[in-house]
Amino acid sequence: MDVDGMFQGQVNLKSPDHKFCLLETADYGLNNGLPPIAQRRIFFGREVGGADRKLIPTYQLKSRTYLGPTAMDAEMAFLMANQALATSGKLVFDPFVGTGSILVGAAHFGAMTMGADIDIRVVRDGRGPDCNVWSNFKQYGLPPPIALLRADNNLPPWRPGLKEVQQQYLHQYYLFIFRGAEVSLPLLYTDGH
Questions:
Q1: How far apart are CA 27 and CA 40, in angstroms?
Q2: CA 115 to CA 145: how far, in whole Å?
Q3: Which of 154, 169, 172, 190 sees the fewest Cβ atoms within 10 Å?
């Protein structure tokens, strides 16, 4: 491939306008005499986005007021909120809200939030009046969820065909390992605008 004329201008490694990356898969030939699983490949690409890594220390779990055994890491919650395009005017619904990690990430980006969980103790009580899902939002100065419901996802809490809430369904599944059983669970609903 001829690259003459593709890249113009001066190279500035300290403050580049564009970042490019070269990735190579390794084929070490150590496959016990079997054919290689994947052929050696080389990928060339341009960075199209990045993350605000300054958010992670602020929202890290070890400083969070209320945690449960399955609290999602802040970095993963922010990635999911980005995939859902959580912004002001959008509604993010987490059907397995737990301690609210995904909703905290979505609320940071300005989305209205709502969640449900089958365990009423998590949703209603937490560990007391100052240690519950609501206190996680208060800790970061974020708007609290519109509602937290006690609901079983086998019987969703909305009427069938409710397009206002379910216009966009993230086809992103999280492998949830709970008590040794692997179950694929959907995570976010947004209004799709």
A1: 6
A2: 7
A3: 154
Distance in angstroms (rounded) separating the CA atoms of residues 189 and 193: 12
What digits encode the pLDDT tens for the residues 85-113? 889 988 888 888 889 999 999 999 999 99
The residue length of the chain stands at 193
Q: By three-state DSSP, how is residue 107 classified?
A: helix
* pTM for the predicted model, two decimal places: 0.64
DSSP state of 187: -
Which H or E element spans position 136?
helix 133-140
Q: Angle at which helices 133-140 and 101-108 pack, to 10 degrees?
A: 30
- CA–CA separation, 151 and 189 (whole Å): 15
Query: CA-to-CA distance for 173 and 99, rounded, in angstroms?
Result: 19
| Dihedral sign for Cα atoms in the order 184, 190, 59, 52 | positive
